[in-house]
Specification:
It contains two helices and no strands. Helix 1 (8-32) runs antiparallel to helix 2 (36-57). 2% of the residues are buried. The two termini are 21 Å apart. The protein is mainly α and 58 residues long.
Length: 58
């Protein structure tokens, strides 16, 4: 996504919205899924998403 110099804030806002949707979906998978391997994959992906957002917040 390239919005140019003036669009960097918009780009971060869109990325934040996408990440929140991803987090909600992964949390639902972790909560409702009975397949342990799928839950493990979702937990790892959630950890990585949270780590990325922490790094971007610094």
């Amino acid at each position: 996504m390239a919005f140019g110099r003036d669009g960097s804030e918009l780009e971060l806002t869109i990325m934040d919205l996408q990440n929140r949707a991803l987090e909600r979906a992964l949390k639902l998978i972790i909560k409702d899924c009975k397949d342990r391997s799928a839950v493990k994959i979702a937990q790892k992906a959630l950890e990585e998403a949270e780590d990325i957002m922490r790094r971007l917040g610094d």
